[in-house]
Amino acid sequence: MTPVPARTVVTGATGMLGSNVVRALLDRGGEVVAVVRDPARAAALLPRAPGLHLAGGDVTDVAALTAAGVFRGADALVHTAAYFREYYEPGADPALLYRTNVNAVRSLLHAAAEGGATAAVHVSSIGVLGPGTAARPADEETPSDRTATDNHYYRSKIDSEQVVADFRTHVPSMRVATVLPGWMWGPGDAGPTSAGRLFLAIASGALPGIPDTAMHVVDARDVAEACLRALGGDGRYVVAGVKRPMREVAAAVARAVGVPVPRPVPPRVALLVTAVMEWRARRRGVAPPGTREGVHALLEGTGRHISSERAVRELGIAFRDLDETMRAIAAWYREQGTVPA
């Protein structure tokens, strides 16, 4: 198992990726300071371990976290918190998006360095890369294109990576690596993210059809492992997983929970269906199982071809089987009482 720092600050610790980072650190005997907005909720979601310390606060107020001693004595920072799932829901707040995804990165890195940390990992997205081609997939050196800059979430991640680059120049005492995951699925998706909502919609039979698209799908536990192995480095690592047709993803979900597989539908039909879902959810005051913005992201992902070769070669990352991922998600949701046994 990869050795880990003695004390690591993890932001977004109750999110799908953050919670898996916390578990991986604790499993290796590390001490974790988990930055969470709701300590009571975090106590219910995260493992009970003597090495886990919950720190209530928000990444948009790093001054308060610093005053509370969150970064004092820390050896490393793993920054997973992001304004992500909210962007793909109706009523997204662009100003809060940039405060969370860009400004907070700068403040967190400086606060961690001042607290004594010498290593950090910042989580970005494969969405910052150009699409690549089947013959020449995009990798860590591929520049952004308009598909990235037209999406405010991707744009914020591009800007956050520039913040990291500037920080490396001015604070060489702390090494900062960047991990660029694909579409993450996995246990611990309490949000839930778009992946979790899609899983639950299929499990409940609320989704009769699935867009006939394809995406790079990766288990959040594999991304968490990449974050741990990247600590102490200053490289950029794509951890995209495997590109899969959505009908394969939906079939794996259906197998994991024992329900019929939603049929593939043309993108135009999917956009119409999600428009109706948004309207119904708005009337009921709940989050829709799918959104038009999410379908557009799936359509954009169909044209992407991404290589994770560097992470495989340099970090030794291996990607889990899709059915294993879906079974783990089903088991976790059953533990939460969300999916029937």
Summarize the structure.
The chain has 341 residues and is of the alpha/beta class.
Structural features:
45% helix; Rossmann fold; three-stranded mixed sheet; 13 helices; 341 residues; 12 strands; alpha/beta; seven-stranded parallel sheet
Largest sheet: 7 strands, parallel
Structural class: alpha/beta
Alpha-carbon distance between the two ends: 33 Å
Shape: globular
Strand content: 15-25%
CATH topology of the domain at 7-191 and 217-242 and 307-319: Rossmann fold
Poorly predicted regions are none
CATH class of the domain at 7-191 and 217-242 and 307-319: Alpha Beta
* Helix proportion range: 40-55%
Radius of gyration: 19 Å
Average pLDDT, to the nearest integer? 92
User: Helix count, per DSSP?
Assistant: 13
Arrangement of strands in the largest sheet: 3-2-1-4-5-6-10
* CATH homologous group name of the domain at 7-191 and 217-242 and 307-319: NAD(P)-binding Rossmann-like Domain
Number of strands: 12
What is the second-level CATH architecture of the domain at 7-191 and 217-242 and 307-319?
Answer: 3-Layer(aba) Sandwich
- N-to-C SSE series? EHEHEHEHEHHEEHEEHEEHEHHHH
